[in-house]
Design brief:
Radius of gyration: 41 Å
Strand content: 5-15%
Distance between the termini: 109 Å
Number of domains: 3
Order of helices and strands: HHHHHHHHEHEEHHEE
Amino acid sequence: MRPSGAIVTPSVYAGDEARPRLGHVLEPDRRWIRPQPTRAQVRLDVVGAVIVAAASVMSVELWSSTAPISLGWRGIEGYVWFGVAGLALAGRRVYPLSTLVVESIVFIVIGERVVGLSGVFTIQMILFASLYAAWAWSQHPRRLLVVSAVVVVAMFGWLIYLFSTQDGPSAPAQGGMFTPFQAAVIYSLIINVVYFFGAMAWGHGAWRSARQQAEIAERVEAERVARSRDRDSAVQAERVRIARDLHDVVAHHVSGIGVQAAGAGRILDARPDDAREALGVIEASSRQAVQQMHQLVGLLRAGDERDDRGPQPGISELHTLAATDDRPVVTFRQVGEAFEVPPTVGLSLYRVAQEAVANVRRHAQAASGEVVMRYVPACTEAPAAVEVEIIDDGRASGATGQPATSGGFGLAGIRERAAMHGGSCEIGPRPDGGFRVRVRIPVAT
């Protein structure tokens, strides 16, 4: 009996737990278009095709060495067709449908021209690989279905034609249910159904896996963009708040200086000419500073239309951040003798403590926290300074601590406020556990 059809053992695909059900092949949802292969993948296909072609030619030599068979025209036709079949796999991902058509034609030609080679394992695996690649990489769902249907009909039609031209025993052997010929036909049909639909199912499973990976990558990228947008918005909101604080406190006092300088220039009698000239310069400078301050605030606001003005908090309001009837318990403590602090510094220290206490409540998983306000008097080596420190006994993971959860938006504002006043900032885990935020700002007394 002539070797018939593409025979493949179940071990080729058995055990693949990720393969889809047959219904996924018969009714595929292929609205997603798989991207073209990368250059690296194409180069790998070319190298692999050369290797497969060489292995196919060698398999012909080995097969023909086991028994005297015809190798076709001039004894080289079998080698040529097997080599062509192997090289054609170079386009299995770039031109998957064309590759499938070529491999199917070569398979049938081998079965007709060099009959003894149609059962060689390499040519059967090449056809299997081309059918798998078509279902894994095709970007044209309708063409895929049409080409696959044509290939399956052609292959099974050719198989039926081969059986129809053969004769076999008319009686079952040794009392079997089927004659040897009938058993061979049934066995070949079953194996070929598994072969072709197994290749399509496996290829479709690879396509579905690629689609899922692409969807995951898209979601990860969307989340990254969203986090970046949220980070920018949070930093911008902090800058808007800083700008509003500067406008409400600094601009008010600078405007007062301008008004006072203008009045002094009108009432001062001693050396009136020189005094007026000096005070006029002060007046012009102060008004110019106010104008520049408004310009800076306008830039920092960046389109913010809110106008929620009101009395701004300062150092005297730090105790309001303490809460002993909530969890975590937050206490307040003052160290050192109080002295006068510029309103801008007091406001910044309050905002620092406010943000740090909010982080303690949201992210630290702490049982208690403390806000410490320190007045550091001047000495020969350093000017006077004020310092606010917020500590807790919560969980701090390595060097990131709370910011790893919150994204670090508020901490960026804390650093900006400290730098704005020429101060120093310390943010990080404590050696004995918990987290610390400490800002020190020098002041002139």
